[in-house]
Design brief:
This protein has 3 helices and 32 strands. It has about 500 residues and is mainly β. The strands form 7 sheets. Strands 25, 26, 27, 28, 29, 30, 31 and 32 form an 8-stranded antiparallel sheet that branches. It has a 4-stranded antiparallel sheet with strand order 1-6-3-4, with no helix packed on it. It has a 4-stranded antiparallel sheet with strand order 5-2-7-8, with no helix packed on it.
């Protein structure tokens, strides 16, 4: 009798729980985003600003856990506020955080998020930016390791994530452009701990002239890593030593078709550098397609160049030099590539890694991002109106087809602040500076002053397009790829 009563009680509790879940929706699911800082921040020279928003039009919660280099928790920020779907959550460093040696953070939310981490160092005069993802892996590819270590340095920074609260072993290896890998070292990493290493400096590598790319791998079950890569270009001339800095997300999948938007700014000129890495065991053919305008012309033209990349090899390219489109002059709009094996008509795709390093010519600066492997007819990002920064937003029709794109900037309540529609020919690009958008919003809403803070931007269109966001601070800039998707499935 007692067991029947207990069973009835359990069934009743289960029924009540089911009713509660039916009323409140499904059980909340934690979405976690692991962010090891790409540089050592505990000195206080590096500062950061986190910006995130929901991937869907849903209210959301955000909490932040912070860890030091050894994996000990030093920050717990858990506001009870439910943010609206158009609210951009921002979190910026305070001096006390450096006293606690904050080196990594975990962003936790009940909704899927998109976001970016901006980092700047006013001592060096540099700024970096990376998109945050929920990518966890047992292998992260470093698609480009500069071999000229007198002029370039590149770090990798990873955070350990244990599924059984035990430490894991992490190793680093590299390709020497001869179709095999060399092991270069391994380390034990505690859960939530931070590991930063610099090939050629804190990792000794043989065959320095042939090092091309590498990977960071986990050797322990139930242990994974998340990470980023940073680049530092050292300039030593008669005026002294200066540096350029950029950061890149690790963990992105190789793609067989990608796009790089090439930005223009009235106060800046750029050198467009690229690294294409073939991680496979077969030689890959790659078609490069440059979209550009000739000097003094509004007509959009294209040029194509083809070459091969050997197995497990990397090639470096600079537009306008002997390596890539040396004869093309004018305004560069975008570089697309397609990689395949054999005859292009056979459509045997061959995914590769592609990295864009955009270097300032007239101002010592550097930005980096990976190829946009996807396109879509809908996208969402945000723009920050802050006197410390200037943001450049590029939108381009993908490929040779035209696109009509609607852009809507909304306030935190979802009210439209600015609506614009523009028609783009195939390959055409339109650009917006944050200062221009601020003025348009101020005038259209008849505000008493310019808007401040971060605001959501939504894009939609009847054609496919790609986007790019560049943040300028002082004499440097950082580049990220805003998320983009198909609003409706294609059949």
């Amino acid at each position: 009798m007692k067991s029947k009563s207990l069973k009835l009680t359990i069934i009743l509790l289960m029924a009540l729980t089911g009713i509660s879940h039916a009323m409140e929706g499904e059980d909340p699911v934690d979405h976690r985003y692991y962010i090891p800082f790409a540089e050592n921040t505990f000195s206080g020279d590096w500062q950061f600003r986190l910006e995130v928003g929901p991937r869907s039009n849903t209210a959301y919660h955000v909490s932040i856990l912070g860890y030091d280099r050894d994996g000990d928790q030093v920050v717990a920020f858990n506001p009870l506020t439910a943010y609206g779907p158009f609210h951009v959550f921002t979190w910026e460093t305070a001096p006390s955080m450096f006293d606690k040696r904050l080196q990594s953070i975990v962003v936790v939310s009940d909704q899927e998020l998109d976001g970016v981490l901006w980092m700047w160092n006013d001592v060096l005069g540099v700024v970096n930016g990376v998109s945050i993802t929920n990518t966890l892996s047992d292998r992260l590819i470093m698609p480009h390791i500069p071999s000229n270590f007198f002029s370039w340095r590149s770090n990798f920074a990873v955070m350990g994530v244990s599924h059984n609260n035990l430490p894991g072993r992490v190793s680093f290896g590299y390709s020497n452009n001869r179709s095999f890998f060399e092991d270069a070292g391994s380390w034990v990493l505690e859960p939530n701990a931070h590991l930063l290493r610099t090939p050629f400096y804190s990792i000794l590598l043989s065959d320095a002239d042939t090092v091309t790319w590498g990977d960071v791998s986990v050797e322990t079950p139930d242990f994974q890593i998340a990470g980023f890569q940073s680049f530092l270009k050292i300039i030593n001339d008669d005026s002294g030593i200066d540096v350029q800095s950029a950061a890149l997300e690790l963990g992105q999948e190789p793609v067989s078709e990608g796009t790089f938007l090439l930005s223009q700014h009235e106060n800046w000129t750029f050198t467009e550098m690229f690294a294409f890495t073939n991680p496979g065991l077969e030689t890959v053919r790659i078609d490069y397609q440059l979209t550009y305008r000739e000097p003094g012309s509004e007509k959009i033209s294209t040029a194509i160049q083809t070459e091969s990349i050997g197995s497990m090899a990397r090639v470096n390219k600079i537009i306008g030099t002997s390596s890539l489109f040396p004869e093309i002059q004018g305004e560069y709009l975008a570089l697309r590539y397609r990689s395949y094996i054999g005859n292009p008509d056979d459509k045997v795709t061959a995914p590769i890694y592609a990295t864009h390093l955009q270097s300032g010519d007239n101002v010592i600066s550097l930005g980096a991002h990976a190829a946009v492997g996807n396109k879509g007819n809908a996208g969402s990002t945000w723009i920050t109106f802050d006197e410390r920064f200037e943001t450049l937003l590029d939108v381009s029709a993908f490929g040779e087809d035209a696109a009509t794109v609607d852009m809507v900037i909304s306030d935190r309540n979802g009210q439209s602040m600015l609506v614009r529609q523009f028609k783009l020919a195939g390959g055409e690009k339109v650009s917006f500076l944050s200062g221009q958008l601020s003025t348009l919003i101020e005038e259209s809403l008849q505000l008493e002053g310019p808007p401040t803070g971060a605001f959501r931007i939504d894009f939609s269109g009847n054609g496919n397009f790609v986007t790019k966001s560049t943040l300028f601070r002082g004499d440097d800039f950082a580049v990220v790829n805003p998320p983009i998707w198909f609003a409706k499935p294609e059949f």
